[in-house]
Design brief:
Layout lengths: L1 E4 L4 H9 L8 E7 L2 E6 L4 H13 L10 E4 L1
Antiparallel strand pairs: 1-3, 1-4, 2-3
């Protein structure tokens, strides 16, 4: 499970991660509380999943200016 804290564009990030499917890695949002989004992933290495999520968000047109944090939970 990965935890993503983001005060803005939560719907955008949710759609981005839930449609991500490269190398068999997928994400599914399981909870949202305030600015905290919780996703489960199908890979066991949650650190790798967090890194993939962060890189995916950063690669978007707004990712470089969007404030967010990704951690393993």
């Amino acid at each position: 499970m990965i935890i993503l804290n983001c005060p803005m564009k939560r719907d955008y990030i949710t759609e981005l991660l839930e449609t991500y499917d490269k190398d068999g890695v997928t994400f599914k949002k399981i909870a949202e509380q305030g600015m905290k989004l919780t996703f489960e992933t199908n890979i066991e290495d949650e650190e790798k999943a967090a890194k993939i999520a962060k890189e995916t968000i950063k690669a978007t047109e707004i990712g470089s200016v969007l404030y967010f944090q990704v951690s393993v939970g």
